[in-house]
Give the backbone structure.
Amino acid sequence: MNIGDSPLLTDLYQLNMMQAYLANGMTGTASFELFVRRLPPGRSFLMTAGLEQAVDWLAGFHFSPDELAYLEKSGRFDAGMLDYLAGLRFEGDIDAMPEGTVFFPHEPILRVTAPLPLAQLLESRLINLIQMQSLVATKAARVMLAAPGKVLVDFGFRRAHGAEAGLMAARASYVSGFAGTATVLAEMLWGIPIYGTMAHSYVQAHEDESVAFESFARARPDNLTLLIDTYDPEAAARKVVALAPKLAREGIVIRSVRIDSGDLVGLSRRVRAILDAGGCPDIKIFVSGGLEEGQIAAIVESGAPIDGYGVGTALTTSQDQPVLDIVYKLQEYEGVARRKRSAAKQTFPGRKQVWRAHAADGTIAGDVISLDGETLPGATLLAPVMRAGERVRRDPTLAEIRARAAAELAALPKALRDPLHPGPYRVEIGTALHDLTEAVDRRIAAHG
């Protein structure tokens, strides 16, 4: 069994509520929406990712005989509940923003419409799948904005919080525009380009650094990158210059050198000068080592001759803001709008849609959140994905998702493009949604 497919990747209270719903005959149609309450500090926008994995999970949703046996043995649930779970499949509707879409607080990015017990059970895993990829896609988008035109590679698998997180970070960063990843399985699954150089241990395993470079080049001549900061980066750069013509005579081209520590701005300038003076102007400089978008923006601003960046820990953990406040809330049950009114956690009721306006130059200019089914100016962001448990459109390819994300980033206004000084964006609540919110409040008050 693929652990990630299990419906038991959930919180116990979801199953507890299912039992109570079934015991009370509450199996009518419900709509839940997944959204973010607020932007994390330092963020001016968010980017959706993870929908493909969510839909795949829903399409294969079922309880296996082993899972049903476990639940029965636990003694927590009655026979009626177990019978219900045995035949349970996702036969509901999904509406969602396409992956690679820029979004903002309170905007629904995914809506589930299904029988209440089923829709309730989906909450934990849907948040789990979409929160993590959207978090990393947003982080990667910020790095893209910090280093336009540079080669960016995900180096973060080893620091990710588990195997699934590391793999999905490779996918999410590629959605946002990264050139590729160091995670090999990502290429096998999705065709994401993989990049790899060498570790300091390879150099250390040899008595002579030049010998290490030459032996590695002969063993791995394709897209050859040599790591030059094991000892002295400038001395190593001179060894690269000496080795380059010898290898070139054998058809082996040194594509780049990598610096993983130290003063990256100063070192890159000195290494560039050594390479150029030695007749190697085509050898690129790639850097890595605990980088995040603030550092990268400063390096780019300095004019350092760096062609690419490997981003690891800060990317796969979204180190500065490691969580999104994504929630999944009941908006409608049996045709009646529902609303949460808890302090600082209030929700807007009913099934909703988002309309987005664009300025004359093509940049996004403001969003309106209002009731689904209205006709308002702008482009609607949520679209049908599944109906009665079946996909209603061809799933977009990863290349298409990536192209959408690129277009979304290109459409960001200036106020949202600076990763270090985020600006505001206008999101309005539509009149009909405002009126419905007041009506629900009156209804709640009337019931005491």
User: Anything to note?
Assistant: The first strand starts at residue 29 and ends at 36. The mean pLDDT is 96. Residues 3-136+322-347+381-423 form a domain with the nicotinate phosphoribosyltransferase fold (CATH 3.20.140.10).
